[in-house]
Amino acid sequence: MGRQRPVVHLILPRSAFNGLHHVLAHRFVPLQLMTVGALCEREGWEARIVDENYEPLPDERPDLVGITVWTIFAPRAYRIADRYRAAGVPVVLGGVHASLLPGEALRHADAVVVGEAEGVMARVLADANAGRMAGIYRGGWGDMAAAPTIGEMYRFYDRFPAWRYWPQYSVQSTRGCRFNCDYCSVIRINGRGQRHRDPEEVVREVAKRMERTKLTAGLFFTDDDFGSDLEYTYELLGALADAKLKVKWTAQSSIGIARNEELLALAKKAGCAVLFLGLESVTRQSLVEANKKNRPSEYPELIGRIHDAGIATEGAFIFGFDHDDRTVFERTVEFADEIGVDLALFNVLTPAPGTATFARYWDDGRIVDFDWSHYTGYWALFEPANMSRAELEAGIRWAYREFYSRRRRARRFRRHLQLLAPDMAVVLAGINWSFSREFRRIEHQPEPPYAPPRVELERLAVTSRADANRAIWLAADQADGVLAAPDQAESTPVTLDVSRSVSRPLSRSRSPA
User: Fold this and answer.
1) What integer pLDDT is reported at residue 489 of this predicted model?
2) In 3-state terms, what secondary structure has residue 57?
3) How many domains is the chain partitioned into structurally?
4) Residue 309 lies in a domain
5) 92 has which bridge partners?
6) More exposed terminus of the chain, fewer Cβ within 10 Å: N or C?
């Protein structure tokens, strides 16, 4: 029986380390691939999403492979792409890392999408059908009205086992961020500033989600700075509250949202259960170094206001700034616990590709490791100013063990019972336990070493110095039409059998990746 529709496999490569993506309430659906999948379905393709963290690569030959590339698994994404191309299957790469290093990505692909896919995916698929992939495709930052709806993604949600992801659903109401933090690549990918979806459309998305499940929890707003645009946020929260949907959700926000107690009360009424806050450091000097506006002296009062509204907090902290010394780990854990942070996320300062931090550390010659698989947030990739790399790596491990020690978790649970609803206290206790279990040890599975070509690192340095709203377009300009010999990039093949065509019935057999 002949193929009725062309088939595209959309792959999320597996991560070689344990960490946040295994923690309860932090196992997020691959929304970026689901978005691309829905765009492919609009064009008459059959899209199949493969999350390699949970399933092996299938033994079948698709018409096209799309791989999302994050820095932490870029080497594996390249190895997968190399293997498919060797079998004659065209490959398109996209995502954060591929957008910032399109020249590197293009060494392993027939095409690279730089930026967002909505405005360009139809042309990518048409070119793939015609056998004329055009190298760099510039996506652009378009109106969010073009983004696929949750209804277009149902077939992907329905395919996922119920236990795999939690939160089970993700919704995006805005893209972009108003801030310009040195270490963050968000504004390079989605732009500095914000684009919005119609609030009523967002409410309809959430309502449709409620029709699919009886669970009230399990919804995550993927917005990078929820609450940034006050006028829009009031409109969205008002619409959610008026809809009276029995749903509890989590969102990422700056700590500044707590300065508006009216907004916090409305967020709670609209279903907000947890706010993820980028606190980053307990010292003002380190925040200035990172171009952050936060003031740690305000944290206790602002965290208290969020708790008074009945909302829990997850605080993120970074170690390794030049003002950090060996005492920063204990000071941070004590401070976070003292001000009532309910969940804590710790990371080592990472010079992520495309960021001002990368540009500064590159110019100073401080980066000592360019194997992207080590850019996990747990490795010291540069020489810290006031401690050794070994001390920095040992410090983050100690911070996780100490903050999530049994003694501190028990004390936290007692506080939650006093401040929050009993069911929320139990949920937070479970997440605290999950953190303690996952971060008892931070492990990295052995991966073949990877070294980016020097010319790509030099281009990346230029991109990283650029204005945020120009960075990825400058990266595309540098890479467009410039291809180096493939053997300049070190790569180890992935074992994969794609000899069968998907025009025949699928087998349940699988080959190891």
Assistant:
1) 33
2) coil
3) 2
4) yes
5) 66, 111
6) N
As a whole number of angstroms, the distance between CA 110 and CA 94 comes to 11
Q: 26 with 95, same domain?
A: yes
Say yes or no: 31 and 176 in one domain.
Answer: no
Burial class from Cβ neighbours inside 10 Å (0-12, 13-18, 19+) for residue 379 reads buried
Question: Are 45 and 73 part of one and the same domain?
Answer: yes
- d(CA 131, CA 129) in angstroms, rounded, equals 6
Q: Domain check: are 97 and 59 in the same one?
A: yes
Give the distance from CA 66 to its chain's centroid. Answer: 17
Residue 269 located in a structural domain: yes
For residues 134 and 170, state if they share a domain. Answer: no
243, 216 in Cβ contact below 8 A?
Answer: no
Q: Which pair of structure tokens corresponds to residue 171? A: 């919704």
Residue 106 falls within a domain, yes or no? yes
Query: For residue 167, is the peptide bond before it cis, meaning its omega torsion is within 30 degrees of 0?
Result: yes
Amino acid residing at 366: R
Residues contacting 301, CB < 8 A, separation 6+:
none
Residues 358 and 434 in one domain: yes
- 220-250: pLDDT as tens digits: 999 999 988 999 999 999 999 999 998 999 9
Q: Check which CATH number belongs to the domain holding 139 and give it.
A: 3.40.50.2300
Cα first-last separation, the chain: 29
Task: Find the range with the poorest average confidence among 54-58, 141-145, 386-390, 473-477.
Answer: 141-145
Structural domain of 140: 7-144+454-488
Global model pTM greater than 0.85: yes
Q: Is 508 a domain residue?
A: no
Buried b / exposed e along 332-360 (16+ C-beta atoms within 10 A): bbebbbebbbbbbbbbbbbbbbbbbbbbb
Arithmetic mean of pLDDT over the chain: 91
Q: How many Å apart are CA 363 and CA 366, to the nearest integer?
A: 8
Residue 487 CA from chain centroid, whole number: 30
**Domain shared by 467 and 340, yes or no:** no
Q: Please, which residues have CB within 8 angstroms of residue 394's CB and are 6 or more apart in sequence?
A: none
Name the phi and psi angles at 139, rounded to 5: -80, -45
Provide the strand spans (E) within 103-255.
111-115, 135-140, 169-171, 174-175, 195-196, 219-221, 249-253
